Hints:
The protein is α+β, with helices and mostly antiparallel strands. It contains three helices and seven strands, in the order βαββββββαα. The chain has a single domain, classed as START domain (Alpha-D-Glucose-1,6-Bisphosphate, Chain A, domain 4), CATH 3.30.530. The chain has a seven-stranded antiparallel beta sheet with strand order 1-7-6-5-4-3-2. The mean pLDDT is 92.
Amino acid sequence: MPDTFSHTVAIAASPSDVWTALQRAETWKNIGPIEEVWDAAHDDAGLLTGYRWSAHAAGRTWNGRARTTESEPEERFRLTLDSSEIHGAISVDIEVGEITVSMEAAPKGLLATMFWGTIRGALERGLPAQVEAFAAAL
């Protein structure tokens, strides 16, 4: 069962503006374990369907994929994350005047399993500041 963390923040941006930002892969940079993004894919309507990402930990770069699994325009957007060491999801729930970003994460590989307490703590402590920075950029 994955660990779940969330943070809610007030925003001045409209739900439409938030939705538009969520369709750009670079918007997801620095949320949770994601440090770099590339190879974004969009459907015919311009909606983000996925991208590749990387994170740096334990002196290594870990690569993964994000895939859109839920998309309710101007209400909710959810991506699943998968790498050799960690899997989970990041969701954004959009309300007028606020967003809630939730992250689910679980160890998948041997290294992440061995150090999950440390990784989990870093993800949990980091999320509020990441969401605040994300909201400020909207």
